[in-house]
Design a protein that fits this description.
- It contains one helix and 14 strands; from the N terminus they run H-E-E-E-E-E-E-E-E-E-E-E-E-E-E.
- The strands form two sheets. A twelve-stranded antiparallel beta barrel has the order 1-4-5-6-7-8-9-10-11-12-13-14.
- The two termini are 36 Å apart.
Length: 235
């Protein structure tokens, strides 16, 4: 698994750098790191940098999350890659994967052990991602996410999204659920809605040449009865 993944990742990155039409770098600063209805930052503000390559329908990049007020908190670095197929006026379909990695989890970043390995699990958790992006006439998105490696029960997460706007404020509604048992990651023992909410965003004009995107989210996890409010800015 380790050797195959390294070769695969090198091939993807090599292809990306050779054919890249766009390279983007940015970061979000958020009041809390909420992932699929769970607080992964222990109620700490988080800085979340991104670097991404894109060429046609191909996208690959790194995304991270680092707590700003808890040096011992969980750090995260994700490597992701996907390819998007245009369906014309019907929208687009994408398929890809995400490698979630926690470099300060007590395991070496090169450790790809499975959860049931005698030496203990590695730092990598690999997930298959399939998504439908919606269209102008049908602005509904659907994503299917399946953990392939290093998590017991191979949990599934499905999310529906709807995007609209009111004047100059964008609105994104989302509903995420897990269909099966996963006490470790999603805290459920059967089908449950775990991520229900809305995100509003707007760009605030700072000067003639600079605008600052800001956003806020209200997120409810009905399964755990947790309610979160998150505010953030994009740099």
């Amino acid at each position: 698994m380790k050797a195959f993944y390294k070769i695969f990742a090198i091939l993807i990155l090599s292809y990306g750098f050779i054919t890249a039409q766009e390279l983007s770098v940015g970061a979000d600063v958020v009041s809390r790191y909420i992932w699929r209805g769970a607080d992964l930052g222990n109620n700490n503000p988080s800085i979340q940098p991104t670097i991404e390559l894109s060429a046609g329908g191909f996208t690959a990049g790194f995304w991270g999350a680092y707590p700003m007020s808890d040096p011992a908190g969980l750090n995260e670095i994700d490597f992701y890659a996907s390819y998007s197929f245009s369906l014309g006026k019907a929208g687009d379909l994408s398929i890809g994967f995400t490698d979630y990695m926690n470099p300060n989890s007590g395991t070496k970043i090169g450790n790809f052990n499975n959860y049931d390995d005698a030496e203990g699990p590695g730092a990598h958790f690999i997930e298959l991602n399939v998504g439908y992006g919606g269209s102008e006439s049908f602005p509904v998105s659907i994503s299917f996410n399946y953990f392939l490696y290093n998590i017991e029960n191979n949990p599934v997460y499905v999310e529906l999204g709807y995007s609209t706007s009111v004047k100059d404020v964008s609105l994104d509604l989302f509903l995420g659920a897990t269909p099966g048992e996963d006490a470790l990651y999603y805290g459920t023992d059967s089908f449950n809605i775990i991520n229900l909410g809305i995100t509003a965003g707007k760009s605030i004009k700072i000067s003639e040449s600079f605008e600052l995107p800001v956003f806020g989210s209200v997120i409810l996890n009905p399964a755990t009865e947790d309610l979160f409010y998150v505010i953030g800015i994009s740099l």
